[in-house]
Specification:
elongated
């Protein structure tokens, strides 16, 4: 009964989730900085999507990692 008030994840998980959201936002912002027509330059078609993919990987890691203090 005392587990009802606990959060679903531990503090470490939420820190990783916040970091992943920041990385995602930076990746999308990098894509907007591309000056080529239709965003077809290096930043819009290569660098931005790589950073966004890294953000999704961090988010997946944040969900999968087991926080030792949460047990």
């Amino acid at each position: 009964m005392e587990n009802k008030n606990k959060l679903a994840f531990g503090r470490k998980n939420y820190i990783f989730m916040l970091a992943g959201i920041v990385i995602l936002a930076v990746g999308f912002f990098i894509m907007t900085l591309d000056k080529e027509q239709y965003g077809l330059g290096f930043m819009g078609i290569t660098l931005g999507p790589i950073v966004v993919m890294a953000g999704f990987i961090v988010e997946l890691f944040a969900i999968m990692v087991k926080d030792k203090t949460h047990e």
